[in-house]
Amino acid sequence: MTDDLLDGPGEAVGRVLGTADATPLTFWTAVSPGSYLQLDDVVVTRRELPDREPVTIAGVVTQVRARHEGAQFDSDVFAIADGTLPAQVQEAAEVTTTRVDPELYVPPTPGAAVFRAEGDARARALHFDRMERRIPMGMGRDGVPVYLNADFLDGTRGAHVSISGISGVATKTSFATFLLYSVFRSGVLGGDAVNAKALIFNVKGEDLLFLDHPNARLDDPTRAAYAKLGLDAGAFPDVRVYAPPRVGDSSGTPDVSSRLTGVDSFYWTLSEFCADRLLPYVFADADDERQQYTMVVHSVAAHLARYAQPADGGVSIDGVRLGSYADLVDHVVEQLNDDETRGDWAGGAVGLGTVNAFARRLIGSKKDLGRLIRGDLATRRPHSINTAESAQVTVVDLHNLPDRAQRFVVGVTLKSEFERKEKAGTAKPLLFVVLDELNKYAPREGSSPIKEVLLDIAERGRSLGVILVGAQQTASEVERRIVTNSAIRVVGRLDPAEASRPEYGFLPPAQRQRALLAKPGTMFVNQPDIPVPLCLEFPFPAWATRVSEAGRPPSQTLRSITQSADPFAVVGSGSSDDDIPF
Amino acid sequence: MTGPRLFVDAWDPSYGASFEAAPGGPAAPSSAQVDADVELPAVDWRAIGPRPGLRAPDVVLLVDGVRRIDASVWTAEDDGASYPGVAASYAAGVVRCDLERGAAELAGAKVGRGLFTASPSAEEVICGRVRYPVHRVGGAGELSKLPTAVQAPLTALEVEVSDAARTDGDLLVVDGPLRARRQLPRTLGYIKTQHSQYLDARLTAVVTGLRPGERSPVFRLGTAWGGWSWYLRLPVAAGAPWAGIVRLECSAELPPQEAIALADLSLVTLPRFASSPYKDPRAPQNLVPIAGLERRLRALLGDARLLHRALTVATRGRGARR
């Protein structure tokens, strides 16, 4: 009994308790005097069996407690501290089993020595040894890297990440970008990493516009932390930033305040709006069956697609030249109000009230979408977001846009990306989509075209190589099918009321409590491989997260998208350098 | 106020009374020779308070033992006779109260077990990892006398553990009369229950008139186990005349000055160890460290039901062999 203390996988820290039930899934360990166990420590014990190889039971500490043994009354603590009552301080740790090897679910024997798992034993306990491709996610509480199984991220066996936590302290976006950095730079994707793309929607501040700027506050301890994870500390090398055009600016310059170079504006031309049937994305509830006017939406969209003719940036319908979104809206409303044309646009059996409901909403969208749907800019100017032709990381800035416009951009962008991937038909190259405030785009209640796109991604994206990295303050308000389809669930600091919801059932009670006071940079990550969420700290971003942190901008950002397109390029010359271009 | 004043004894009735007394004082006035003129002349007897400037020693050791009868046994002798016996577990331990550091710890504890019987043929009982060696008792070995036979090995065990824990400048407090432990240096015997009345009525009045934290003058007992002795009243809410009174004794071989010095030391040391009535059924006499020690020692004795079962199984096997 005592000699097995000498040859273990690590330092002996205690023995399995006999005063509380030891079960194969959780057991308590008395901590030996002079040792300690903290939450998240990985421990291992062994159970000898007759006629079989011994069973190794490994687990993670999910609760620790200390108490005075020999004290009967609360006030005895004063007598003990006074030195009059003999008592012993005894610490005990609750261990939640992560691995039983071989899989023979027997309880550990009370009295069996418990060791702190180090090195290979720790990797085995946390199933890291079974992960063929491991993505470093950060450091465990013990300062050793913890990994994510890439199979559950890239769609091999699972996909999608759901990150929940209070805004501001939960560092959801930082973790999402760190995860992307780790995926791209750790080498686990092999050759696919070069072509893998990321599409990031920036919804708050201009935080994500500096991903390609090195962080001026990066210090040596942080560099060392990155090195420990097997990563170089640096900025994202290949980033393209898109921002919406400024309001009322006829030249379509991007609306950003802190980042001045290397930002391209994005918009849709009126002819694209009509031809691609983007009208439903203007409405938040266009697919809601309870709404009558949605019939009109689809009917008008179809009419626009059929009759709108491109005309020098704008469109011409029924011989009327329309040069802006406002013109288009006015024209549509006018046609609907006209008894003669209403039937052509809205269909036959639609009541006037329904048409008015549609018209009211459409007119309301003029202000929000006017700057995104343009008829006054050159058609050939690059303006669309297409990750396949963009840099490795594409950042779409939404933070200046009103709610309706944000939804429109997200919905249309995701739809076109998803359709492009559908047409390509292969999962590779991967596309990671980072979207904060998922509860806004895919709320639990109701239905909308954007939610349909997100649901499509959640349910079919895995096979098409579209990986959704969604973040939200409250997972309970996000469409359940999206959350359940996420193989990886991440929780930062949670709101106390939110933490008690069933969406966080994967957190053991002690971790649920801890999530209430998790500090920035601390995340609990649940992955299908490991039955207990791992608590980790990810390093401070090596890229700038605000303008004050930004170091020297990379040289390519000094070019804008129009400049980066070679004005002297001859059509067709891209095929091969060896060909004579003429 | 008229009529006799009434007080509720602080001790739990199952422990008897702290003062086993006939009307008027402890039972059966002792026949022992008492020399009351040691510290003060008997005519001048009065309560003595703590000596100014005297501090309690940094380290106080308290020794106690517990015993438990695990099973009563009967032997079957070849000649058809039968002797009673008891299988007893006993444990002695010492608490080291480091008052300066504010830490009380178990400085040593030992557990012993034995089969106490007068049977000439009894053999030791082994049940699992537990051994009950035979302690042969002299005389007829009536069942009622056997429990007291456990006291001798227990006392020996107490001496053993307390010897191991001694350091210079400490004070050892032994639970119960010193008896055979008189040769231990700086040692006090601490007697919780007053069975005998050693002093005459006038001197007893001085004892019952003590206020909490006061002691009587030192007197000398002339009994076989006698020695220097004094009474002390522990902190106690106003109560019966004998409430909170304990008797202390030290070795008769000490010169009187040393005995008086020990008496003064006891007065600054012991009151802080007094227990509170709602926590201890024998408060305040059962000192806090002793109570804690007894709990730990009882835990060390092992589970009584388990031992009883083990003994039953072990002896049944033996009976079957015969």
TrEMBL record, chain A:
Region (Disordered): 551-582
Compositional bias segments (type: Polar residues): 554-565
UniProt-listed InterPro entries: P-loop_NTPase, T4SS_component
Listed name of the protein: Helicase HerA central domain-containing protein
Organism: Micromonospora halophytica
Classification lineage: Bacteria, Bacillati, Actinomycetota, Actinomycetes, Micromonosporales
UniProtKB/TrEMBL annotation, chain B:
Protein name stated in the entry: NurA domain-containing protein
Protein source organism: Micromonospora halophytica
